[in-house]
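YM 10:42: Putative actin-binding rho-activating protein-like isoform x1 sequence, as discussed on the call
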Amino acid sequence: RYGRPEEGSKTDKRGKQAGTLISSEIRVLCENITEFGQPVPDGTTVITFGELFQLYTSISNKLVGILLRARKHGLVTFQGEMLFQRRDDDVVITLLKSLRELYEEMGYEPHEFRNA
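YM 10:58: structure's back
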């Protein structure tokens, strides 16, 4: 347990709350890609970074961080290590799983699915 907070401590609780927030942000990102992106024949959904950035200007200033975490979890893919407004507006973001698959992995009940 080296490097891990003691179970039930304030640090442990803060860590769990942060994990829940991150999961929520990634879920919303995937929902937005599904809603505003384009489905492609292989079953995935795509949207450009520019389109997603415009959508997020009114939603969140943390889009790139959320995208990087979602990629780390195998939910999205895109070219490059980092994305920048204007320079990368045409970079395609691909959602690799359906919302139904995502919700099932996150432990949501079917009645909680949004447009899955």
